[in-house]
Amino acid sequence: MRSFWSVVVAGVVMSASPLATAQYPVKPIRLVVPNPPGGATDTVARIFAPALGKRLGQPLVVENRAGSNGNIAIELVARAAADGYTLVLAADAQIVIGPHIYPALPVDTLRDLVPIASIATTFMMLSVNPALPARTLPEFVEYARRANPPIAYASIGSGSQHHLTMELFKQRAGIDMLHIPYKGGGPATVAILAGDVAVMFGGNSTAGHIKSGKLRGLAVASPRRSRAHPDLPTLGEHYPGLEATTWLALFAPAGTPDALLARLRDDIAEVLKDAETRERFAGAGGMEPFATTPRGIRRAHQERSHEVRGDCEGCGGEG
């Protein structure tokens, strides 16, 4: 973990070659998203890619490459030419947690990718299909304890924050549930709406359905109550210390010239200051821009309230 953040901080302060910066980019940039459409990563890409492309003078072409909890997309980008024209938008779990869940990965996320900048943070909400009789978090815990066979829950993939947060919640609440991994927030949300699973932790893919009443929100996993869903308690109100937030960041293949990384960082910082971009993030289920600075990265490292700790049974396998 320390080596990852050291690379981030070191990368942020790199100086850029004016000539290389002026020449880049001269063609469209491929932005790989490790999840299918409908989830937080895809939504963030669709919000910031057009704005960043406008500043760069070349479009960012979003390409969804789902599978194996992001490992397929990460390997694709790690093996791409280190010329600034193939990037990946990845979640913290895919970079930091994935290597521990999938020990046979063909690439090393901390060695074969270089961080460019963080883009956004988001929080998760625990929601259930309205067919369940439980209307509050304590009622759900009691219902799950009595369920025989155990009820099924969805995640966006094995080893994801959504998966591990639910496993920690199960441990704290003393309940058992069956894990059903999907290839992203969109497919998982479709499953809970259809009643194929009863419950899930979700972000922006579930936020609108909670607002409309198609799903019933029970709690938020953030440190404090959501402004968008102020009636929902935090997990910590019932289980002190249990919380999980997620960051999303842009990465390039290792060896990408420092001048190109610096150019991208500068333009990303300006995009994240833009009022329209910030408004679109807020309207997409409680996302917030998360601009990288050396001081901010150190603070984020120290305050990793979202980091999943402890053992997790059955966390392996593909999502």
Question: Explain this structure to me?
Answer:
- The chain is of the alpha/beta class.
- It folds into 2 domains: about 1-125 and about 245-300, D-Maltodextrin-Binding Protein, domain 2, CATH 3.40.190.150; about 125-240, D-Maltodextrin-Binding Protein, domain 2 (3-Layer(aba) Sandwich), CATH 3.40.190.10.
- The protein is built from 14 helices and 11 strands.
- Strand 6, helix 8 (about 160-175) and strand 7 (about 180) form a beta-alpha-beta unit.
- Helix 1 runs antiparallel to helix 14 and helix 3 (about 40-55) packs across helix 12.
- The longest helix has 17 residues, at about 40-55.
- The two termini are about 25 Å apart.
- Residues about 1-15, about 295-300 and about 300-319 have low confidence and may be disordered.
Order of neighbouring strands in the sheet with most strands: 2-1-3-10-4-11
Computed CA radius of gyration, to the nearest angstrom: 19 Å
Low-confidence stretches: 1-16, 293-298, 300-319
According to CATH, the homologous superfamily of the largest domain is Bordetella uptake gene, domain 1
- Which percent range describes the beta-strand content? 15-25%
Distance between the termini: 23 Å
Q: How is this fold's topology laid out?
A:
Blueprint: H1 2-12, H2 18-23, E1 29-33, H3 40-56, E2 60-64, H4 71-78, E3 86-91, H5 92-101, H6 109-112, E4 113-123, E5 125-128, H7 137-146, E6 152-155, H8 161-173, E7 178-181, H9 185-194, E8 199-202, H10 204-212, E9 216-220, H11 235-238, E10 245-253, H12 258-273, H13 275-282, E11 288-289, H14 294-302
Parallel strand pairs: 1-2, 1-3, 6-7, 6-8
Antiparallel strand pairs: 3-10, 4-10, 4-11, 5-8, 5-9
Helix pairs in contact: 1-14, 3-12
